[in-house]
Amino acid sequence: MKITRTNILIYATVLLFGFIIGWLFFGGSHEQDNLATHDHEMTTENGQEVWTCSMHPSVRSDQPGSCPICGMDLIQVTSEESEDDYSMVMTEASIQLANIQTTPVIREVPQKEIVLPGRVTLDERRISYVTTHFAGQIHDVNIDFVGAPIRRGEVMATIYSPEVVTAQRELIEAYRNRDRNPGMYESVVRKFEFWKFSDQQIQQILERGTVQTNMEILSPVNGFVMNRNVVDDQHVIEGTIIYEVGSLDHLWVTLDAYEEDIAWISTGDAIEFSTRSNPGHIYETVVDYIDPTFNPEKRTIRIRANIENNESHLRPDMLVTGTLTAVQDEEKLMVPSSSVLWTGPRSLVYVKDNTADTPRFIVREVDLGVKSGDYYVIESGLEEGEEVVFNGAFRVDSEFQLADRFSMMNRQPGTNAVPMGHQHGDVEMSETAEQSTEQSIERYSDVPEQFRSQLTEAIQIYLEGKDALVESDLENSKQHFLSFASKLEEIGIHGLSGNGHMAWMESYERLMEQAGRITATDDIEEARDAFRRLSDELINAVQLFGIDGVVYHQYCPMAFGNEGANWLSNEEQIQNPYLPETMLTCGEVIERIEL
């Protein structure tokens, strides 16, 4: 066939038309499929594109832009990042920046080291009463003051008694005739023994062979005089208690076990204790008795142990600190205490969803059991092997709160209880947002006014210590937190009842620990780390118990290498106590807290 210009044009036209038809039937539909797939992946909320910040997942926008918190470029959210009121997806970048770490729920036998305050007391079973067993007149009172030390067999006083004089004559006569009438001799000896005369005193009468007018009254034990009821020349009748003598050879140690520790303690448990006078010496004993009655004022129960005092180092009323290591009978589910956000018996933990393709966290309410060292027993709400957040839980909770999801301070998700779009520096919260935030806090309603007033005073001291850290004045800050610890001691641990008492006990222990770290260090960065941990606990306490007045919960995501840190302030204006030299105004107001 002859190829002509006309044939070439015809073939080219047919080939081009075939390409067009193929593209319409295959290429176009494939591209539409790709577009549809892309639309599906990048459309997640009501069919609209959603953009978020890798550092602050709570930020949501329907268009590209910058994060209103940190200024980073927003990234687009995929449909795989499904969320609800009880979960949130976080990017790998935000997890790394916030240093969020998880650990599996473990099953182990709970054990607890219990610190027990107490004191040395007399063994009531070893208090001796020196009693006259016959009428007479007291002479020569050698032990003439309360508290006098005395040894067994030492002369306390002498006594003249006509009855004893007559009995001495009978004893001498019976001894001379003991071979003919041994029963009489034994009867008279028993009379002197009943009167508590010693074998040595009886033997002295026999050796002298004459009557002694004044007989010596001897101490029955080693110890000290607790009470003296006689003076020289005093006449006494039979049965008069003339001295009370406490023994120092065997003593009691009585210790106070707090309400939450009672379930851990049983008779026979080993206890170690030390005294302030000799803190390097450790005494060992066991629980001998647990008092069945409860002290409603101290919220404690008394436990008792016996201790031998052979070297006489211990004295009644010495203060002691005891340690008891208790172990339960069976294994329980446990998580680190840092995983639990305390809101009462039902508290929150954040669980990592390992079935999701992208990092996703779920808020879970749990029933707490006892605290075992650095762990809490979980009675219900978790399963063995699930991963919970143990570092950064408060940061995750903040993100949930900012996104208006279920969280520690927001029990009504979807009500816009928390204002969106916080910024660095000054932040204004709308009146509606403030009211909603206050309503979302589950505060104890039975907090006494005196407790709240004292807590407010402690917070004022805290704020002065915070201001000193803003000025990088470590010594001034240490002085304020020394006063803060003193104020906590003044408040004590028994100002509340019920669940509030339990919550304050936990807070008190942690607040005192971190205040002690601040006052003990000469490194300002270590002081700021302790201040961070103290602030987290104090914010929780303020939310649970309330204060008189207003404080602002503030947060800087850049502190501690982007781990983030919280603090309280009495002003909305940001004055960053963690980065005052480089980022003084870096931070955001999380909430406004008032009664």
In brief:
This protein has 595 residues and is of the alpha+beta class.
Q: By helix and strand content, what is the structural category?
A: alpha+beta
Mean pLDDT across residues: 81
Which ranges are low-confidence, i.e. pLDDT below 50, for 5 or more consecutive residues? 20-43, 417-441
Radius of gyration in whole Å, from Cα?
A: 40 Å
**Terminal Cα separation, in Å?**
100 Å
Shape: elongated
> Count of DSSP E strands?
30
Beta-sheet strand percentage?
Answer: 25-35%
Helical coverage, percent range: 25-40%
Number of H/I helices: 12
How can the largest sheet be summarized? Answer: 8 strands, antiparallel
How would you explain this protein's 3D organization?
The structure is a single chain. The protein has 595 residues and is an alpha+beta fold. Among the domains are: 5-43; 439-594, no CATH class. 32% of the residues lie in helices and 29% in strands. It has twelve helices and 30 strands. Strands 6, 7, 8, 23, 24, 25, 26 and 27 form an eight-stranded antiparallel β-sheet that branches. A hairpin with a 7-residue loop joins strand 19 and strand 20. Helix 8 (449-470) packs antiparallel against helix 11. The radius of gyration is 40 Å and the shape is elongated. Mean pLDDT is 81; it is low at 20-43 and 417-441.
